Predict the structure of Glyoxalase family protein.
Amino acid sequence: MGVKPLLGQHHVSAITANASENYRFYTKVLGLRLVKKTVNQDDTSMYHLFYADERGNPGTDLTFFEIPHAGTTYKGNNSISLTSLRVRNDKALTYWKERLEQFEVEHEGIKSKYGRNVLSFQDFEGQRLEFVSDKNNDGVSGGKPWDQSPVPVEFGIIGLGPIHLTVPKSELTAKILTDVMKYREKDSYPSVVEGQPSIRVFETGEGGTGAEVHLEERTDLPRERPGRGSVHHVAFRVETEEEMRKWVTYLKEIRVPNSGFVERYYFRSLYFREPNGILFELATDGPGFEGDEPFEQLGERLALPPYFEDQRAEIEAKIKPLQTKGE
């Protein structure tokens, strides 16, 4: 069965222990829009928060599951070890350096990595983040920052940049990326850790910052123990539901264990683990987040897919109220 190449990053889902502080940081400091306040469809006792550009365009979503008792993350191997956030140009990086300092967020200064300027920092729980300049990007286009954000539109985050994976055996993951997911191995750049292999760069679709996976092999690290501030999974873009169903058939045919077709209401998905244990999701570009809320009110109330609406009272009783505009 022929499948089309993936289009790039769709979303990254991470873990927070504090939804209200998470909301404050990602909307008030980073200036993202909360486009959907909903619950984890696999465990409705926890929030699932979606931050993105103005309407949650595919490739711009950074999402969080709230697990109040999540422990400390012990960083290491077999992990999605860095999430990068695209900004338009180098001038935007200078703005962000000043803004992080204003909010007393520690950072590593503006540096060059793989021919792009970047600015690494962490959120209040140690979530590993990095702004990346799109100045030299000629690949997949970014999203459109919300014009009501506290961050000026010209400096706003326009989407997810390269996703960084850290694994003990890179060839196993590389084989999945190229042979199964149809990525192209494009290049490599030196590790910052002496004695470790170069970091391999893979791209899909139009390529560029929004369609790259950076694969780092580390033989000196223990397996990561995830907790608050860790990434749960990364999702990659499939254009339509019809194409997603082809992926379901294709993975079955080549005997890659997977979840099969999953209805998420805002998009359609499937999940599988690559050989180093990292959870990958494929997700469709649509329908999007405006099926149950108008554009102007995105993220203002607790949104539940129709198949959970009859459980609203029970669900709302189990979760701690999270004050967002409109409630």
